[in-house]
Amino acid sequence: MKWILAGLLLVMGLFLTLSFIDSGLLNANEAVSNIQGPELSVADNNAYYKIQNKIKESGVKNPITAVLLNFRAYDTLLEIGVLVLALFAMLGLNAGEAALKVSNTSQIQKTQSAILVFFSILVGFYLTWVGSYSPGGAFPGGAAIAGALIAYSFIGDVRSFFNSRLGKLLTISGLAVFIAVAVLLMLQNGYLLQFITETASNYILIIELFLTVTIAMVLAGLFLFIAKSDISS
Amino acid sequence: MILLLTVDCLFAKDLKRAITSFIIFGLFMTLAYVRLNAPDVALTEAAVGSGVTGALLIKVYTILKRQGQKQ
């Protein structure tokens, strides 16, 4: 059963990688044809200037966020798909096993973790929020919150939270919201993930917030569930 | 420094040493990205490349050691 799941995962990963390459090529062609347009003929042959010329249309001020969530949003969507797929495969491999007991940690560690959790979550969401106009974004923010979840696993039972309905809902939320926005924009504007400059910043912020939650769940989940798959084998 | 750490990470006989140098390599890469005016990449490298990947590698190392002791 395990090997079937693993094989399935491999094939899906391969397909997703292929579609990555495909979309990358398509976007690259599109970008090239855009740059050769008349309004951008002044542009230097440099990625930085290319982005700076277009950034006003993206709705965000930070070039990295503009590329990740507006110009190449399709790539990011598939990336999140891969992450969620990996976590659910791992949960599937470990399904039906008893939850591990909370490891015996000292009082100092417990207090420290309890304090750390709050600040890590705060820092994580701050990084996401700040990502629209300065360095930051969903990935580092999600990683900070993943750190909080791992710290919390020293004092509480995080593993059963991942298997609960709420946990699964949170894990899938980023991908679901991303796809929902993509389809909504397709219905409005005719193309998948075709942002309009006026509303782009709102949509990007909503996507980023839910992406942070998903990334946090996936990164923490991958860390927490490796140990369980060891025991079963 | 980064190159030295890379060589150490790839060719170290001791797995633990390789993992440690990988984490230090990540932290130095963070500094390099900051110097290259790419704070976004630096943040992500520090959090994901060094933090999460390092933690995962250490965890896998302990699991491998435990399995080795069982056999």
Features:
heterodimer; A: 233 residues; globular; B: 71 residues; mainly alpha; 3 helices
How would you describe this protein?
The complex is a heterodimer of chains A (233) and B (71). The longest helix of chain A is centred in the C-terminal third of the chain and has 36 residues, at 197-232. In chain A, 76% of the residues lie in helices and 0% in strands. By secondary structure, chain A is mainly alpha-helical. Chain A has helices at residues 2-35, 47-54, 63-71, 73-93, 107-130, 138-152, 159-163, 165-189, 197-232. Chain B has 3 helices and no strands. The interface between A and B is medium-sized, with 19 and 18 residues.
- How much is the average pLDDT of chain B? 84
Tell me the strand percentage band of chain A: under 5%
What's the Cα radius of gyration of chain B? 14 Å
Order of helices and strands of chain B: HHH
Report the span from N to C terminus of chain B: 39 Å
Main β-sheet of chain B, in a few words? none
Strand content of chain B: under 5%
Secondary-structure-based class of chain A equals: mainly alpha
Shape, principal axes of CA atoms of chain A: globular
Shape of chain B: elongated
Number of helices of chain B: 3
Structural class of chain B: mainly alpha
Helix content of chain A: over 70%
Low-confidence segments of chain A, given as residue ranges, are 20-44, 229-233
Which helices and strands appear, and what pairs or packs with what?
The complex is a heterodimer of chains A (233) and B (71).
Chain A: H1 2-35, H2 47-54, H3 63-71, H4 73-93, H5 107-130, H6 138-152, H7 159-163, H8 165-189, H9 197-232
Helix pairs in contact in A: 1-4, 3-4, 4-8, 4-9, 5-6, 5-9, 6-9, 8-9
Chain B: H1 2-11, H2 15-35, H3 39-70
Helix pairs in contact in B: 1-2, 2-3
